[in-house]
Amino acid sequence: MKKLTEQEIDNLYDQYLKMNRLAMSYYETIINRYKDKIKKTKSIKDLQNLYTYIQNISIAFFDNNNNNMNPAYRIILSAINECTSSLDNTYIIDSQPLTNTELIENKISLDILIKHTRLLLTKAAVASLSYYPRANINNIFKETLNNFSFINFCYESSKIVEQLCKKQKIPCKTIKLVPGFTNKEDLWDGTKLHYFNIITFNNEKYIVDCSYRQFFIKKYNCLEILGVVDSYGIMPGYIMLQDKTRQEVATQILKYGYIKLTPTTLKSYLDGFAMSYRNSNYYEQTQDFSFQTSYTSEIYEKFLRGEDNQLNYEDKRYLGKLKRPTKIKFS
After folding, report:
1. CB of 155 within 8 A of CB of 175?
2. Full-model pTM
3. Dist. CA 178–CA 191, nearest whole Å
4. ∠ CA 164-170-171 to the nearest 5 degrees?
5. E strand intervals along the chain
6. Residue 91 pairs with which residues in a beta bridge?
7. Which of 267, 113, 270, 146 is nearest to 196 (CA)?
8. Which end of the chain is more exposed for a tag (fewer CB within 10 A), N or C?
9. 286: helix, coil or strand?
């Protein structure tokens, strides 16, 4: 075989780059058509179609030499953010929070505590407008207290609950959830953190989560997103709907802001988060679409105490952001 000169190599590389630019231009044209259509129709179905298309073309952006995605893929990912921001917040469980309670001096009930937390949280959100993206600001103004999504306000929510409980001498713990239930690995690039509370009221323990509604926004719960490399995966909301008991637990928390802590409610609540930490590698390799876990409430208690974590039960490749294209299709 004839050895190529440096000039011939340079010429071939230039042709390669030119072909890549042409391909990228073609993909961008198609993506822009999807974006225009989604902004016009406001259709979740069109968003799902976009996710499927991105999964199908993602192999063209994978760099086998460096085992990562081509930097140009960021342009594709930006389309997802642009499209989801253009859609209104609708919910996969229609469970409005209770609003017929008032804070009464020197009197407390769980319903009053939750209502007051939600009210303070909404006020805090409006007071912090300059710290949040324009899309969130618009949503805050559009949404009433009944329909406020509480996106990115879980920490503030848990701290308000903690402060109100302290004033009323109600035992309260703030719990921080991290992907995989471990701080040893940054499985989702610092995202997918969540805070909630466990309180003791009249000698009974309760899970309290006033910002839980954020996980049930329809546009963030499209199963097709699992096939998109470097996306933030599925939300716990989708997982909670795949099981009758989990759906009942979710519905009560969404409506009341709390649920009595039992082995069943703890497992159901944390199952949603545990499975949301999985990526499509899990489904491709295991072919398990049951949306169930073998974790018991006792195991989850160990997770929460930091004595155990998900990586001791599942392959690390199955948890965290998807880093390379998979062949499995979601619909």
Report:
1. no
2. 0.84
3. 8
4. 115
5. 62-63, 68-69, 172-177, 194-201, 204-208, 258-260
6. 217
7. 270
8. N
9. helix
Taking only the tens place, the pLDDT of each residue in 177-193 is: 999 999 988 898 888 99
CA distance 222 to 218: 7
CA 69, CA 63: separation in Å to the nearest integer?
A: 6
Q: Which two tokens stand for residue 96?
A: 């409005």
Predicted confidence (pLDDT) per residue in 239-277, tens digit:
999 999 999 999 999 988 899 999 999 999 999 999 999
Question: DSSP letter at 279?
Answer: -
What would the two tokens of residue 262 be? 């039992």
One-letter identity of residue 51 = Y
Q: Which two tokens stand for residue 31?
A: 């993506």
CA 180 to each of CA 17, 129, 190, 316: distance values in angstroms, whole numbers, following the listed order = 40, 31, 12, 9
Residue 124's pLDDT band (boundaries 50, 70, 90)? low
Helix, strand or coil for residue 197?
A: strand
CA-only gyration radius of the chain, Å: 23
Burial per residue of 87-103, b for 16 or more beta-carbon CB atoms within 10 angstroms, e otherwise? bebebbbebebeeeeee
What's the pLDDT tens digit per position in 47-58?
999 899 889 888
Q: Which residues contact 9 (CB under 8 A, 6 or more apart)?
A: none
Nearest to 316 by CA among 286, 292, 281, 287: 281
